[in-house]
Amino acid sequence: MKTLKSIMVTTLLISALSGCTKKEEPEPSTLACKAMGYTYTLEDLTYTQVWADEFDGDSVNTENWSFENGGSGWGNNELQYYTNGLNASVKDGFLDIETRKELFNDRDYTSTRLVSRGKADFRYGKIEVYVKMPKTRGTWSAVWMMPTTSSYGTWPASGEIDILETVGYAPDMIYGTVHTALYNHKKGTQRGYSSTLENPEGYHLYTIEWLPDQIRYYVDGVFKFRFMPSLYIDCPNSRQWPFDRAFYLILNTAVGGDWGGAQGVDETGWPDHMLVDYIRVYEIDQLDAILATKK
Ligand SMILES: [Ca+2]
């Protein structure tokens, strides 16, 4: 997923560069190689929990989350209006993002989008989310991360980490993806995985391990994919690896849009629910030692 603002700026940049003869800018030669030169043994890493939302209260904890509101289409021609928390509730230990078919501010659907920006921002570590995703055709749901500050420029230059995405028209499929300046879906070069989920009606545990040189994806404890740019190129820079800055969490269900709406939107099946039991964040106990090994 991405944001409308980001797409607009990207379009402006493309327009500004359209007079150039080169398709790509030259690689900045003065940048140090990122995401390589670290020494550690993956199996020996240990983690300590530093943050969690277990959704144990009776409302969304606004110390952890803000709501991003609006019905702009969000850069993807999405159909929903994101309300100011009206579609998010907490009950019996679960967050429920309820996506409804209802007219609201000239939009035919409503939902809510939670972001932890400025309240829970993280760099490196392990993130776990135990979640059950919507299944109605037309939904497009995601657990994902965006950079707290756009240190390397607007989307996708500062990166995006999609821990999990699902679309209702493929209810047993799951997707995990990263986007960067060079690897992104606008170019068709994004990096990630898709997998068939057994028992898509149930809850599943989605985990990423975000290390200084790779992001590893697991589902129910089973390894699925790693994004490790040093496997592809000799000297990754921020265009392949912007993931050395803090990112924040996003939880949302959209309706329609370029991906979610690719096979239409069902008339029935509303409301639908994205149910989150917990989301937990851990730091790497050995992080400082790993960073100190950088060659
Ligand atoms: Ca819970």
Under the CATH scheme, which class of one domain? Answer: Mainly Beta
Give the helix level as a range of percent. under 10%
Distinct ligand kinds: calcium ion
Overall 3D shape: globular
The averaged pLDDT comes out at 92
* Class inferred from helices and paired strands: mainly beta
Could you characterize what this model shows?
The protein has 295 residues and is mainly beta. It has a domain at 44-64 and 114-265 and 277-292: Jelly Rolls (Sandwich), CATH 2.60.120.200. Helix content is 7%, strand content 40%. The protein is built from 2 helices and 18 strands. It has helices at 4-17, 287-292, and strands spanning 47-53, 66-67, 80-82, 88-91, 94-104, 107-111, 113-115, 121-122, 125-132, 139-147, 160-167, 173-179, 191-196, 204-211, 214-219, 222-227, 247-255, 272-284. The strands form 2 sheets. Strands 1, 3, 4, 5, 6, 9, 14, 15, 16 and 18 form a 10-stranded mixed beta sheet that branches. Strands 2, 7, 8, 10, 11, 12, 13 and 17 form an 8-stranded antiparallel beta sheet that branches. The radius of gyration is 19 Å and the shape is globular. The protein binds calcium ion. Calcium ion binds at residues 54-55, 93-94, 277-278.
List keywords for this structure.
binds calcium ion, 295 residues, globular, 2 helices, 18 strands, 8-stranded antiparallel beta sheet, 10-stranded mixed beta sheet, Jelly Rolls
Secondary structure: elements and pairs:
Elements: H1 4-17, E1 47-53, E2 66-67, E3 80-82, E4 88-91, E5 94-104, E6 107-111, E7 113-115, E8 121-122, E9 125-132, E10 139-147, E11 160-167, E12 173-179, E13 191-196, E14 204-211, E15 214-219, E16 222-227, E17 247-255, E18 272-284, H2 287-292
Parallel strand pairs: 3-6
Antiparallel strand pairs: 1-18, 2-7, 4-5, 5-6, 5-18, 7-17, 8-17, 9-14, 9-18, 10-11, 10-17, 11-12, 12-13, 14-15, 15-16
